[in-house]
Amino acid sequence: MITTTTGRKSGLPRRPAIEFHEFKGRKDVFSGWETKTEMVIKSMGFDLSLEKFLAQIDRLTFFTSEPTDRLTGVHRMDDQPAIESESKSKLRSRSSKKQEIPSLGLNIPEKLFILSIDDERGEIKSSIKSTLPYGLAGGLLAELALLNKVQSKAARLIVVDSTPTGDAWLDGILTEIASAQKPRKLSRWIEILGRKQTIKQTAARLADRNVIGIEKKRYLWIIPYDTYPQVDASAKYWVKQRLRGIVLAGEKTDESDLILISLLKACGLLRLLFTRDERKYASKKVDALVKGEVFGEAVSRLLEQAQVVVSLAMMH
Predict the structure, then answer these.
(1) What is the pLDDT of residues 112-163, one digit of tens each?
(2) Which residues in 21-58 are b (16+ Cβ under 10 Å) and which e?
(3) Is the dihedral of CA 104, 110, 112, 114 positive or negative?
(4) CA-based nearest residue to 263, from 281, 239, 280, 245
(5) Where are the beta strands (DSSP E) in 131-266?
(6) What stretch of H or E contains 56?
(7) Of the candidates 16, 45, 283, 300, which lies 20 to 30 Å from 73 by C-alpha distance?
């Protein structure tokens, strides 16, 4: 039995599991909201850790339903007698269908940005304000690489096609790289771009497309700061669903997804994607997925070097 409600702030559907049912000797339960993973596993009668549970995932059958904003109240499995008359092959076909992730038209830095926003306050989380600009810079350079405009060779970034992309921000960066007297290291370009108010520029792009809003506020009536309330909450929801499916369920991925996951790891943002009980398993999967991904690794090295400099300065 499940109930469907809408999130108080996000407006997205939530389907918490109320109980499990035994059908033909088999226990069935609908998954609840993503923070209830351990509760759902235990309610199914499995005394397993999440990692061991996922290792046996092929033995389970999952039924999915499309998101809805309509309150459905209580739904009981025994209210659906037709389910018994369906053939096993039809049930298997239904259960194998995956929820289609819509194309959002967001680039890597834009996805990284919306994932970094605190849902309650609409602010960039304070713990990542210093690392996010470099993650955004890495995402911008990665976008140019995916468009075959630049390449990383021997840790240095070179321009292979200087024709405009049609995106004013990317074209400005491409021109700057092409105008350099000699090829610079990838990490050096990330450092340069990370100092150019990438947060404000990314926020402005998302606001122009009504994904987020931008509100000016002051701390103690003196210090100005911006908040970014979500206008289209579904954008963040679908980005998270896509990445969680790749890491936890082994869904197919592409180069853009891998770069985004690598940047999230470099900036210390993976904890925003996974619940506490999922993080150990997810960390191992992410390490295997992004091994050798140059943009995330460059951001990670740059941030490690910066931390060493800060530590040395504090010692003297």
Answers:
(1) 999 999 888 888 877 788 889 999 999 999 999 999 999 988 888 999 999 9
(2) eeeeeeeebbbbbbeebbebbebbeeeeebeebbeeee
(3) negative
(4) 239
(5) 150-153, 156-159, 184-185, 215-219, 223-227
(6) none
(7) 45
Query: pLDDT digit string (tens) for 208-222?
Result: 999 999 998 887 777
Cα 250 from chain centre? 15
5: its two tokens: 């409600």
Distances (CA, A) of 267 to 106, 119, 186: 19, 18, 17
Q: Which residue has the tokens 């602010």?
A: 123
188: phi then psi, degrees, rounded to nearest 5: -70, -40
pTM of the model: 0.67
**Closest Cα to residue 259, out of 243, 278, 238?**
243
Match 């150019």 to its residue by tokens: 196
Strand partners, 97: none
